[in-house]
Queue: 2 jobs
Job 1
Amino acid sequence: MTEPLSNVLLKVQDLRGWYDESHVLHGIDFEVRQGEVVTLLGRNGAGKTSTLLAIMGILAKRAGSITFNGTEMISLQPRQIARLGMALCPEERGIFSSLSVEENLMLPPRIADGGLSVERIYDLFPNLYERRKSSQGTKLSGGEQQMLAIARILRTGAKFLLLDEPTEGLAPVIVQQIGHTIKALKDEGFTIVLVEQNFRFAASVADRHYVVDQGKVVDMIPNDQLEENAQKLHDYLGV
Amino acid sequence: MTKNLVISTAVFAAMTAAPALAQDISVKLGVLNDRSGVYADLSGEGSVVAARMAVEDFKAAENGMNVEIISADHQNKPDIGSNITRQWYDVDGVNAILDVPTSSVALAVADITAENNGVFLISGAGSTALTREQCRPTSVHWTYDTASLANGTGAALTNAGGKKWFFMTADYAFGHSLEENTSAVVEANGGEVVGQVNVPFPNQDFSSFLLQAQGSGADVIGLANAGGDTVNSIKQASEFGITQAGQKLAALLMFTNDVHALGVQTAQGLSLTEAFYWDQNDETRAWSDRFMEAHGSMPNMVQAGVYSSTMAYLAAVKELGSAEDGKAIVDKMKAMDIEDPLFGKVTVRADGRALHDMYLFEVKTPDESTGEWDLYKEISSISGEEAFLPMLEECDFSKK
Amino acid sequence: MFELLGVPPQVLLGQLLLGLINGSFYAVLSLGLAVIFGLLNIINFAHGALYMAGAFVAWMLLNYLGIGYWPALFVAPLIVGVFGVVIERTMLSRLYHLDHLYGLLLTFGLALIIQGLFRNYYGISGLPYQIPAVLSGGQNLGFMFLPNYRAWVVVASVLVCFATWFAIEKTRLGAYLRAATENPTLVGAFGVNVPLMVMLTYGFGVALAGFAGVLAAPIYSVNPTMGEQLIIVVFAVVVIGGMGSIMGAIVTGYMLGIVEGLTRVFYPEGSAVVIFVIMAIVLMIKPEGLFGRTA
């Protein structure tokens, strides 16, 4: 479990974070390798979403170290972090109601070459193609909004994606579709950090799982050792 | 010994100082006006400059008088004006208060002045109440009042053939009283009022009202408003071709600085009444040039009035040998024959109203105007007795 | 020939047209306010003072540098806009995390200071600014004499309003702006420089005020209080249209100009308050404004 990881893209060390005065992250440590899908598992309020927001720089009051591709990001602004090739799909999806579907899709600026073409995106998400002229992004169904939220960060050239509970509140058939998408993205060379409550879904797409509890990473379980750690996970997650 | 020395030193000092003291009449003048608001250009620092010029020209020091001038901003608020006035009389030892535009403030100052037996030389304010309903034995209303403006403009234009009048009236007490005064004069001279419109105050855009005035078929459009409202109505009347189409505009309260602000291009052909214009004769020109040098703009009648009333006041003080008894000084002013370089022959009537000629001017056309300040041509003059309202019995202080 | 409440139709037509002209100023000014409120959440009380500054800058350009009306139409808003950027950078940007009230107080104070400065240097009587020669004179429309300059005011304001609407609703930059209005954090996390956008938006909003000031210079007296009188009405327009709604600000601006114009015919005394009466009614029936989105 402690074997050194090669090809580390993101390295988070002793990450602490605060919302105003309330201390939410108490020393998060984890690493993500190039091309991996890694999940952050944990109970509600464990600090998973806060970890993503801290990485992205949105949780501004933070300390410790976050290096991405060798660059220290702990004191960077969100827009600078985005320019390093990192993109967030937030928990509440963040679809803009005053923008049409197409505008939502085209909104995030291109920050590097090598993003997916619009054709390829419509290939992955045929529903969006049908609804692209829809006047308000928020008129889409929950599943379509989730796809739009993922789709729009694929265009930008960012190769490192932070997905915050992409399956939350969606019908099983759509969850399945999102699972396919994540696997397809992995094949395209994307690296993904996934925050999940849905353990089954996480198991179907991820390479490794970090367990977060009370603002700390308490364990790491590779996907292929899930069986033998099932009881431990039950205890962590209280499922 | 020491005590004696002190006393003898004091006696010596008193003796050496005594000759100067005996002659020195000390006078303190307070110029109270608007220094930052809508009437700041009309009165403001220009009035202080005018008062200072009067003290210089009177050669106060050579005449054994020690004159000091202070000034304050009443912000056009009666309560602020009253407080300053009280402090000036009670604490600062002011003998006379000058100028005071904004009638509501002037009315308050007139009362406090009477209580304190000071002197109130009014130039900026225009309300006829200052020598009628609220006449005071210590007030001298020097320059103009709304009735004299209405008389000047209303009578002259009606007699010149402007029989049909339409009023654009600022919808508050001042505007209505101006309209009322002028309507009376128009009708007394055989004219008629064909319509009027009450314009909200203050207002930016007068085009709707101007169109209504135009549609009324009136010969003269009377502007019963003041300040920025007047300026804007004239500017827009020119834009909509009202004057070019033959209707005359009559501004019922307007000053040189307003016309200057408009420029002759816009204001040409406008009729208005004033008590003073800088370019009337050699004396007014000479004085105005000095004023221009000191203040950076030509004087208007309010500032000229501050100068002239101060000159007359200082002459009365000199004759009495003291500035302490305000009523006595005003009585003296009423008894004097005043030959003023700016206003000509002036008499102060028993009610405090200064009588002098008023003039009807017409704003020159750009072709006629030879310079930035070459604004008016004189159409006619009206004697003081005609221009101002007759005295009310109860305001005849010579009988009290 | 019919008459409406004793008013002949040609008079009515004339007044409608005049209302439209006034509405042009309301539209351009309330548009600027709406753009600023939308992105910055600041109720920009300095808007009237900056409108006044626009007129004064036009006057200064002419009298100090000999720059005439047409170049001033671009240069003056630019200068006012740069001034706005300085205000945003040095003062407003410190207030974004606080309540609306702080921004309102700050901009109100700024308005008083700007006005006081102009009053101190240029007095209160106002300064003359001539209508450009090409636009002097007018057309006799039969029912009224329409000065060419007023016609130009309507054309210019419609053009500016349309261009602004188009830029915000139909372009990529506009999409950033609308998105940042909804969720600036997320837009920043996409790599967009939101603070820069906020700064330029404020600059653009006040430049619109400056533009309206230049438009107004030849017809209203250029004096330090010209904005103070107008701005309260414009605020009412924005409230009626819906805070932050671009289309709402434009349409309501023209509409209320016309309503006000008609009031001047039927009940002139009421023309100063009619807009506020409408505001009160709208607030009671549809508090988010005629074009506002419910939150």
Job 2
Amino acid sequence: MKKIKSLEMVNISKSFQGIFANKNLNLQIKSGEILGLLGENGAGKTTLMNILYGLYQPDSGEIKINNKKIEINSPVASIEHGIGMVHQHFMLIQNHSVIENIALGYKDTPFFFPKIKIKEKILEFSKKFNFPIELSKKVWQLSAGEQQRIEIIKALLNGADLLILDEPTSVLTPQEAKELFVILNDMKKQGHMIIFISHKLNEIMELCDRVVVLRKGEIIGSTETQKTDKKSLAKMMIGREVIFNIKKEKIEKGETVLNVDNINVVDDKGLLALKNISFNIHENEILGIAGVAGNGQKELAEAITGIRKITTGSVTIKGKDITNISPRKIFDQGVSHVPEERIKFGIAPGLFLYDNAILKQHHLDKYSKNSFLQYDKIKTHTKNLIKKFNVSAPSINTEIRNLSGGNIQKLILGREISEEPSLMVASHPTYGLDVGATQYLREQLLKIRKLGGAILLFSEDLDEIFELCDRIAILFEGKFTGILDADDKRLADIGLMMAGSLNYV
Amino acid sequence: MEDIIISVLQRTMIAGTPLLLATVGEIICERSGILNLGVEGVMSVGAVVAFIVTFLTGQPWLGVAAAIVAGMAVSLIHAFASVTLQANQVVSGLALTMLGLGLSGMLGKPYIGKPLAIKMNSFAVPFLSDIPYAGKIFFNQSPFFFLAVGLALLAWFFLERTRFGIKVRSTGENPGATETHGVNVSLIRYICILIGGGFSALAGAHLSISYSKSWIEGMTAGRGWIAIALTIFALWNPGKAIFAAFLFGGIFVLQYLLQPLGISPNFLAMLPYATTLIVLLLISLKDPRKLNAPAKLGEPYKKGER
């Protein structure tokens, strides 16, 4: 017996600090339908779904189930109405076992001996939807795909007829994504309805019956996927004709800048994250590292920039050994770093713009004299930086936390470029940025390449990798499954290489 | 010789009892993600309230009940500060210790040195207390001893084998995710802090009306701090806390035992604290993942943060 035959969101508006995240949105979905919610980062997709799931309250508008108005003021109310959500960041307790995680969210978990009593029920469900799970394993031991299945099982156990999936494929390998699609299609056949949030056009076209396109908190269009194509969807999503218009010039590569020889690196858990990795990068060259998150990318970036210890092997910059020397000394050798998680590692959020503009250069003679900072010079430098890198900020005397992600990233990039590094290590430089900022940052990276710089680029965005890189290395479980030139035909199978089932090394 | 060993072990159980009670309380509190450094103060309040009520009414169990209520009442301050106001838990906990020590000193002034008329008889478990050696050591003991071990086992059962326990542990690991499952994180933390306060006060009550049967300012003598260290030593597991607490009880007793051998009493008084330091050092050298520490211990949780 299905609780929901149709669901409707009418005239939903929600603003944060005076800025509209959702503006008069209308949405309908019925049984046996997969609805795609397409839009860029910050378009308001997640906000809208968090309202449906009861995490946020709308400023105005109403939600109707089976044409009857209902109140959803908490996730519990939402679950009772038959709505389930798989969040982009999994809501799992990493140190607990799978079964404990399911017991936490399941509404009929008994008070005593919950783990023993719900086991049967879970096994029955995993059989019905045909995906096996190991109940006694701890969540942190599972792959992203397996963790996602737990989230789906949790929702189904609670009797979810409507399943909301927020960017479900962003953490999956292409193969895992395919498996997910099979599961979702099965659910659709059994009469479930699914809202599938994504900014990937291919997935929307492949999976969804209907698609609603959001831009800046408003609905731009709504159509059946069969009556549209990728090109017009892209246009609706971004608001202009062409997605990216970056042309990479052909440049002959120069001398070797970075040489990594047989390094082994251990991760936070004490396990080997990089196993005998070797590669090099030349002047005028961008080497891209592709791979699913957690296959050693973070450790590689940290090892080269001196944040993480290298167990064996060596790293040299223009012939000079920089293995396991301090990050400051590595910086002085001309290695700059645009770290991942820019707010956490790239800036000091509570300090002013001009402080952040010289975070790594404060010790240079031009900015400090007899241990005192030369603020007049620092501020002039910051003003130039802001102008040169298009950072829009009310003033250099504001705390940097008040800036948008794109502007923060532009300032970081400007800071890292300003000492003209011979090697730049850039980790996910455009992650979570809007189209304008993304394009700008990519152009800047190509400019460094043109001026003779070498770049090691980590990205989970394959489009970005293909657009910018001269060579592409695919990392899987701490080893390369391929280092190929960007025009190599074998890169068509990059998905298989990322999943470790194909190896060209 | 035999008698000495039995008597030492018997006293070890008595000395370990308050440590066990306070440690189990702190474990429950910390598993919900709240660090409570106020144990020493709450213990002291429990001790003085239990003593005063017992002294005035002649009813030790009424004294115990009053101590638990008082302990929960003062712990409410820490709960309000750390959960509702999302204040720094270290600061708020330290404040609670100072408040508790001061408050108990003030309340207890008229009672210093007065002997307690009542007696808390040791309780002999039928049949079991007749077992040679073990009977005397384990089954002919202060009622607090049985209470402490029983409560520790019960706490383990609740944390590991009930739905409520899963909620408590999840709250300490990842309050944000727990909230999305419809669990009231603030309520869970309030409950756990109050339970923890009740346990600490119970430990104090044992000290004043059973262990020494008198009140003197500062009689908790750092046991609250040792309990916090034991929480880590027991890897946040009430079951392991039983062994940890009685091991440290033994170190307390060792002081008196070694004194006749000509070892300086000051050095011996240092033993429990020195052991605590060494144990903490050894544990922190271990792999942190295996430590089992609640992931969000000591971090305030802000609801609905974007």
